[in-house]
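Re: the 252-residue chain
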Amino acid sequence: MERLPIAAQVYSVREEAAADFEGTMRRLAQMGYEGVELAGLYGMTAGQVRDVLDNCGICAVSAHVPYEEFEKNLEQTVETYRQIGCKFVVVPYLGGERWYGGERYKETLSLLERIAVKCREAGMQLLYHNHSHEFAPNGQGTYQLDAFYAEPENAALETELDLCWVKVGGADPVEYLQKYSGRCPLVHVKDFVKKDQVVLVAVGEGELGVEAVVEQAAKSGAQWLVVEQDDHAYGTPMENMGKSITCIRRLF
């Protein structure tokens, strides 16, 4: 099986990054992460972020960028992440009136189409990152997420499947990786246990089924695995990021 590079979603270690961005990036690189997925710039310019990452020997594969930043200043936002060197830009969330069936849904689709064009012109690809609410039925026998990706305006939009939320939403992560084969260059490998609520844990310590999903991600044409753990009920963020990459590399 093809060995996929692994990136760390910086939101997983956001407090550490806010306190010492360069030191945190260096520690992630020492763990074996080859890239990061940004979630904010921590008060730095694009050039400063790129210099820090270059100094630490780690690249910015992608960035989560809220829809509202594109809405406020599309060209400048795209240019910022182009300067950093991102290959992918990801809209991390759409909800409420902007999501499927909402009052501003069609308006949102139109802007997503424009964002995708601007990203492509800058040498980047636009993706959307799911949570679990997108797996509500659309009333026509499928999930809202699938109806969203089938919209003509989203023809150039690719997906960053978050496998934890795929499973929590009631779908099979392996089947979804197969379904979006060739359209899912980044895959969020996020593990969890579900009791009264969803509790996020280090990769390999939960219900995700890491071996099967990583194997299918490679078969489906993923270019990167991205480890994300939003919260850390057990252990520290840096400990858990170390456990997660160790688990994946032991399997593959």
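The radius of gyration is 17 Å.
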